[in-house]
Predict the 3D structure of the following.
Amino acid sequence: MSELSVNHLLGIKYITEADIQLIFETADHFKEVINRPIKKVPSLRDITIANLFFENSTRTKLSFELAEKRLSADVINFASSSSSVTKGETLIDTVNNILSMKVDMVVMRHPNPGAGVFLSKHVDASIINAGDGAHEHPTQALLDSYSIREKLGDVAGKKVVIVGDILHSRVALSNIFALQKLGAKVKVCGPKTLIPKYINQLDVDVETNLRKALEWCDVANMLRVQNERMDISYFPTTREYTQQFGLNKKLLDSLNKEIVIMHPGPINRGVEITSDVADSKQSIILEQVQNGVAIRMAVIYLLASKIKHHED
Ligand code: CP
């Protein structure tokens, strides 16, 4: 297969295992490109991409922009806080105004679940979901699985536990879909109040004891508690959360086995993970960020190859 089965990347739910493998093979090539002295290829000189961020971001925003520039695309950036959205302009009006400037592809982060799917039905451009509320964050899940493949040789058969605030996490949902499509075994671990009721429908086991979860796994993906998405208290205090679900060096060393530590960022150091674990040899947190550029180059390149006027 040399082509994606989709024209947009709206979620891992909507793509196939073959799509993911094609993205990984393409990312392998771009990883080699970005390690060259000249880190740029001319592939997308005829493509214009708009990065629309209606919610804050450091890694995803910078990584997409770098990926687009490494592919030689023209790039425009939009942050809702400094735009006419603050004057009441709608999402569709905002995007249609941007598209009238001959934009081919939109990368969008939005606080509302389903915002990318909605946009894909109303505008004539290729849409990449850069995180929509607590729904999906597909490029994060792709770079996470790609980083596991790089570290452990394969994703199939590996045991991965996702720890923390599963309820509010788009990273958790996209990771579950990606890992399962690639043949990994997935558990989630966290306070019962932060495990969504629909988890049983996803064929995922729940473990509320962090030690047991860590003893089982090859990889632990530690998630941040997303206080900004909480309107009530889901656990008594941050201190108690950390005591039960925080990963520290003493706990890690007591396992008597090497596990791979991941975190999508941003990290709340000392809450879900201590600094000595986040910065340890077992942590691949910065490799995840590095791989994000190659993965996003691959996604953009493959989606651009489906745009009619683009000849590569
Ligand atoms: N992992 C992630 O999405 O980080 P940002 O919110 O900084 O983009």
Remarks:
- The first strand starts at residue 48 and ends at 53.
